[in-house]
Structures are given as structure tokens and as C-alpha cells.
């Protein structure tokens, strides 16, 4: 592998890691922190991508498309949580079966509405085109660099929210002991509903961000659900730092594998997950049960 190829593959891995983080961080909030098994998370990603593309196509505004995707996914996630998941809260198997059923139905409905076509976005001119990286000596797409910066901002904002604000402290306390938090007058169910909607909004927003870098098409929901599961399992349940590190590991391993031995690249992420679970069953940053 030449120097230019190595740098390009590494940058591709970093930007793919940023995309995986944007998708998986919503899954971390829902599954890792709230312990709600939402296997329809990939459907929220794809639904947000489709809605964002529709709005952006009709208005000509990529930003409006991204905002619409986040809003619609949040509403869909809130409806899912209130109508189907709240009555079976704490029953992991039922939650898994219900959300699998939702994802199957949603996939067929989206296929009927948008067809089996592949859709692409046109990001704003300021983040389109290429940029010359003088230190590395190569050119690289501006939009992929934007994804990297955007993921860093989102990660920092979530970390500050969960660790430096009263709301974040309340959320973490409710996760550990919801009865105690309820006793001091906090509406835990409302708090969890807002968290679920926020996690769904992040998935919908990631649908536009990821769809602008790659594409939006039927089947992408399963791909990003699987990526989110692998990232959360490797990083550890409920850990933002674990989600970031695991996204980086999975994406870099995936990109280097595609460059070096593409025939076996599909299984390398699973081997990484097996290795981590064998050495540290709770994940890299997870707490022991």
C-alpha cells in the first residue's frame, strides 16, 4: 500500500467512524442507557434519510431536509415508545420481537413509498467539492471532513449534557434507580420518552448525513442497525466514550480489511467483536454486571 493509499484509507476509516458514531450514539442512549431493546433503530435511520431527501428535493435546502428528518424520526420514535414499548417495558424478549416486527413492516412501507431506487443528496456548496490537505499531500472531499467535525461536536455536546447538566444527572440517576428518582417528584416516564425521541432524532439526522456521503436505498436500515449493535457491544453498554472508540475501531478495521483482503472483509468486524467479548465481556468501557 502506497503512502497516498494508506492516508486515503485511514481518512475513509475516520469519516466512516464518525458516521457510525452518529448512528450508534442514538442507539447507545436507547439501548445502552435506557436498556430498551429497539431493533427498529435502523428503520429510523432509513426513514429519516428518505424524509430528508424528499424535503430537500422539494425545497432545494439540504439543511431543511436534515431538520425535517430529525423531527419526523423523533415523532416516529416517540410514537413507537409510547404505543408499543412502554406497555412491555423491561421485557427484553418482547421488546426485541415487537421492534423486529416494526422494522419489517416499516421496510415494506418505505419500499412501497420510495421504491427500490438509490437516492443521493446535494449538500450545501460550502461543504461540497474537494479540499487539499497540505500536511498529508492529498486531496479529500470536504463533506467527509464535515462529517468528522460534526460527529466531534455531537459527541462533545452529549458528553456535556450527560455529565455537566442537571438534566443529565437526573437521567443517569433515573437509569440506576428509577424508584428513587420518582420519589423526589421526577416524571421518569416522561424523561425516558424524551430520551427515546432524542435518540430517534439522532438516527433520522444521521440518515441525511450518511445518505449525503454514501446513498439512501432499501436495505440500509439493516446495515446500520448491525453496525450500531456491533459498536455498542464492543464499546460497552451506555458508554459514550465506548461508542466513540468502538466506532473508530470498527470503521478502521473495516476499511483496512477492504483495502488489504476484500474477500474476507465482511467477517472482520464480527471477529473483532468476538475477540473483545472473549477478553472483556462487558465491552471496552462497560461496567461489570
Automatic annotation (TrEMBL):
Subcellular compartments: Cell membrane
Family label: Belongs to the binding-protein-dependent transport system permease family. LivHM subfamily.
Originating organism: Thermalbibacter longus
UniProt GO cellular component terms: plasma membrane
Primary residence: membrane
Matching Pfam families: BPD_transp_2
Lineage, top ranks: Bacteria, Pseudomonadati, Thermomicrobiota, Thermomicrobia, Thermomicrobiales
Protein name, per record: Branched-chain amino acid ABC transporter permease
Record's bilayer topology term: Multi-pass membrane protein
Gene Ontology BP term (one): amino acid transport
GO MF entries: transmembrane transporter activity
Domain of life: Bacteria
InterPro entries: ABC_transp_permease, BCAA_transport_permease
